[in-house]
Amino acid sequence: MARAGLTTERVVAAAADLADEAGFENVTVSALARHFGVKDASLYSHIKSLQDLRTRLALAAGGELIDRIAAAVAGRAGKDALTAFAGAYREYALAHPGRYAATQSRIDPSVVAGSPALLRTAEITYGMLRAYGLDEPDLTDAVRLLRSTFHGYCALEAGGGFGAPRDVQKSWDRAVDALHVALEHWPHDEGTRPTGTPRP
Known about the structure:
The protein has helices at about 10-20, 30-35, 40-45, 50-75, 80-95, 95-105, 110-115, 115-130, 140-160, 170-185. The longest helix is centred in the N-terminal third of the chain and has 24 residues, at about 50-75. By secondary structure, it is mainly α.
């Protein structure tokens, strides 16, 4: 019999803690069953499958991450917003490696479309970038630039990949400065130049 009080929320919360402690790839139904002192079958009253569990974990972690970013960027714009966004992203990625890894996992597009957390992530990210005067498809290109820069830096830092004596924080600050300059001087194509922007 499942332990009294076992719920989907408790299972996902335990999975998040396990991800941070042992790695996202080690989040399994069996591992969580051992944590709760129940048989694997007991958890299937609360989750459909391992994929369902990992998807729920990814959405929960994504919600945590965007909540922190939203709080950091509130009332800010331009470089201040970008710096706050980047800092909150990095802080979460380094403090919660398993949860962060979950946010990078592939999620079914139909699930993404109905996720308030992921929709809010797009709203806040695109809103910040529109302040730089970007429209589509430049917005999507800029989002990909930020995501790949932030993710790559955090992955290398977490794995001890920076061996030079240069302070890692200082390099991060310069990287964010460089992104700000790139966003301010975005290379628009003729067909994507923002309305009202004069040709050179």
